Amino acid sequence: MAQDTLLQFMDASADSTDDGFVAKASDFLSMEIAGTTTVKLSFRGGQDRDSVNTATITVPDLEAAHDGTGTGPSFRNISEVVGSLLNAKDKYLVVADMAAGTFVAPFTTTVVVANAVD
Length: 118
Known about the structure:
Blueprint: E1 6-10, E2 20-24, E3 28-35, E4 38-45, E5 51-58, H1 62-67, H2 75-87, E6 92-97, E7 102-103, E8 108-114
Parallel strand pairs: 1-6
Antiparallel strand pairs: 1-2, 3-4, 4-5, 5-8, 6-7
């Protein structure tokens, strides 16, 4: 029986309970543009499964990709990457770990984690 893919997100600090989380791919709720250079991924979380864990991650300039002045990926391209991560089977994937400097392209440099601790 196939197991759910697990996705890891960690920010740069290690001094509090909301520095990172590991989410099941099946707990994915949404991806949205959080700013010109950030996207936010949301997952169902918490022990009671009634909370939301989010990871806001830096990406190349989305506005420049949209208007054709940049060379980075568009939101659509980033969505395809996220889709492939979510559909990987029986995997443990480090999507964005700021402390370790590990990022799945096109994610880069900064991760801000907000997770439900209950």
